[in-house]
Amino acid sequence: IKSLPHELLLEVVSRVASLSLYDLLNAKLICKDFLNAAKEDYVFQHVSMDKFPVVPWKLNEESYLFINRCLENGNAEALYREGMKEYFSYKKQEFGIEKLKKAAEKGHVDASYVYGMISLCLGNDGLKQEGLKVLSSFKSRGFRIKQCRERVKGFLGLLWVNNIVARKQGSWHAKACSNRENTKEFPIERKQRWQSSEEEDIIVSTCDLCLWDHEVDLFCNMLQ
């Protein structure tokens, strides 16, 4: 172990941390080199939070410091959890949306979904375009929208939801969907199948804009 370059040792410990917090704790007991590496910011950026309650009602000082350290170092799961609580429960929308955006930029799937939905509901054309760009990663990365929606619904079920997102009046996609001159602003990809409804599969002749427009309705209804 002592012959390993520090960067490689740090990468090994961070990989262990990303899979299991318990394994990280065990690794710290192996030797002083692992113990010291586990204290570095890079490890807190990647450490798994699966063993922590999504919404902890009580935290001891050690757990509180651990979660704060994860937030300070840009841990995607920590940012997502805190962003959800701030946006929907604490009425700190500005701070919440910023954390959700950061988590989405780091590739967090559920944060990408929530940030995209909020952007399509509330934003101007520029923010809507940004939301569509974030959501487009679902297709390229092979994620299933329904499963993601169910996870988000489960998270929201643990919160006191004090901020209900409602879409603005009118269909934001209709103009681009019907007018070919606007396709540069909202690129359209025609297809025959999508999985955005409550049923597992619905076959329709539609486009990506129609898919996300329908998903926005499901998202807003989920918050009622």
TrEMBL record:
PROSITE patterns found in the cross-reference section: FBOX
One Pfam family matching this protein: F-box-like
Domain F-box: 1-47
Protein name according to UniProt: F-box-like domain-containing protein
Taxonomy of the source species: Eukaryota, Viridiplantae, Streptophyta, Embryophyta, Tracheophyta
Organism whose genome encodes this protein: Cephalotus follicularis (Albany pitcher plant)
